[in-house]
Amino acid sequence: MTRTERDLVTALRDELAAIDPSRLCDRTAEIDGLGPLPTGREASVARLAIRLRRGGEGSPVAIDWAAAPEHCRTAWLRGRFLARGSLSLAGGRTHLEFVVDPDDARTLESRLIDAGLPVSRRLRRGRGVVTSKNGEAVDTFLRRIGATAALLEIEARQVSRALRGELNRVLNAEAANLQRAVSAAGRQLDAIAILDADGRLTDQPYVVRLVAEARRETPEASLAELAERLELHRSAVQRALERMERLALTEAEGPPPRQHALA
User: Fold this and answer.
1) Are 63 and 35 in contact (CB under 8 A)?
2) Domain check: are 140 and 181 in the same one?
3) Which residue in 136, 175, 193, 259 has a CA-CA distance of 20 to 30 Å to 32?
4) Same domain membership, residue 85 and residue 11
5) Model pTM greater than 0.85?
6) Do 26 and 72 touch, CB atoms closer than 8 A?
7) Domain edge (last residue) among 147, 181, 211
């Protein structure tokens, strides 16, 4: 991840940590989500934990997920993301990961899926790892738990990156097509010159001679442009040009060696 991307992720986490739930039940749920020892490096997360506990909630109370209202679930998810979650935007790909105790991984997986976030679960060096690489679903999840301004900036950068990638793809394709067209026109002009020099061009059908003249007058024209100019089908123009190239190659290879009769 670039420094700018890391700064954006930090800004997003700071934005979430600045949310101050007004309901007591939400504050209790977020404390439970944070757990006893949040692992985030941001000072804003540590300040959030102190601020929530300062309200007099006392010891954390485990949320009853099945019975909890949506706003309490959202508060718990926000706390769990801030305490155990990490977000990567490397290469324009969104990767959300939670690292928790192995015994907690299955519960977290179930709750995230329940919240509409597709995730996978595995063990890594004795820790439970729950991940999601679905960029659209991750954005929806982050917006649900309160990310707005920083998420908009992340999405804008992702769109900009995608547009730049598409533009580069189109430009590269156009450049390759242009190079092929220039090479083909060069071969065709060489073929016309060979046939004209040895007199064979005048022996060709009218359409072939017509296409040869048009190609010499407009070497930069595409097949479609030549066809439009001559009021011919594109396939007829292409066949005429291929015929001239084929004839020129036959001449370039030279006639077969003459057989001398034995005395």
Assistant:
1) no
2) no
3) 136
4) yes
5) no
6) yes
7) 147
